[in-house]
Amino acid sequence: MPRLALCTLAVCVLAIAAAVVSFARGSWLGIIWVLIAGISSNMAWYYIRRARAARAADRESTGAAS
Predict the structure, then answer these.
(1) What is the number of other CB atoms lying within 10 angstroms of the CB of residue 39?
(2) CA 3 to the chain's CA centroid
(3) Could you tell me which residues come within 8 angstroms of residue 65 by beta carbon, excluding any fewer than 6 positions away?
C-alpha cells in the first residue's frame, strides 16, 4: 500500500475519533471532523486505486515485452 494512502487512512481514523469525542462532548464541531474524515477517506481510495492501476500497467508493459 502506498505511503500516502496509509497517511490519509491514519488521518481518516483520527478524524473519526475526533468527531466521536466532539459529539460526545456536545460540540457541533464534530461535523467538521466528519467532513475531514470523508475527504481523507476519498484520498486514500484514490491513492490505492492509482497504485493498483500503475502496478497493472507495469505488469502489462513487462508482459507485452517478453
Answers:
(1) 14
(2) 10
(3) none
Angle separating helix axes 30-65 and 3-24, nearest 10 degrees:
160
Q: What does the angle CA 48 – CA 53 – CA 58 come to, to the nearest 5 degrees?
A: 125
All cell numbers assigned to 32: 467538521
Query: What does the pLDDT look like over 8-61, one tens digit per residue?
Result: 999 999 999 999 999 999 999 999 999 999 999 999 999 999 999 999 999 888
Please give the model's pTM, rounded to 2 decimal places: 0.82
Question: Over 70: is that where the pLDDT of 64 sits?
Answer: no
Distance CA 46, CA 22 (A): 28
Tell me phi and psi for residue 28, to 5 degrees.
-85, 0
Residue whose grid cell is 490519509: 8
